[in-house]
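Our consortium's second objective concerns turning raw sequence data into structural hypotheses that experimental partners can test. To show how far this objective has progressed, the report includes one record in full. It was chosen at random from the queue rather than selected for favorable results. The single chain below, 182 residues long, was entered without modification.
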Amino acid sequence: MQASGQGRATGERAQGGNRPATGERAQSGNHPATERRPTAGQYQAGGQRPEAALRHAGLRATRQRLTVLEALRGRDDRVTAQDLHAELRDAGEPVGLTTVYRTLSSLADAELLDTFDIGGEQAFRLCGDAHHHHLVCEVCNTVEELHADEVEHWVASVAKAHDYEVTGHRADIFGVCARCRR
């Protein structure tokens, strides 16, 4: 398992921030808590437009952000800024490496992306809505979202045993997927 601070999983904010670990998205702005707003998971599943996902996250829909979001949509792997930049360049997209880095960082800060460490370099993946953990293949970089009640029970048990108030947690399991073992 990976400790918090190695990026952000849905349900918590990097660096021990203030996002609840319950899987509920924090409500902000002028939107009442009961209003149905588009979410990152709905965008990932093809259920909303990228402009709506950005608006929901409080970001302007710039050409660069739209390009990066579209490049991440439907991917099941984690990708570094350099690799994504190369893919965009090969596809004829006129976007610079610095812009890709900044865009990925702003999307991660807005909680639209999960982050992962790959040998000291940060990698990104469009995240789902509910609090989750990850199974991460170290060969093909595939990331599978995992909803694990066992982890949640373990976190609560450890917190109770140590009289600790949990503000977030992250559990990523690294290994080699079945496809790569064949």
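The partners drew two points from this record. The longest strand covers residues 113-118. Strands lie at 79-80, 113-118, 121-126, 133-137, 143-146, 172-175. Both points have been shared with the crystallography group to help prioritize constructs.
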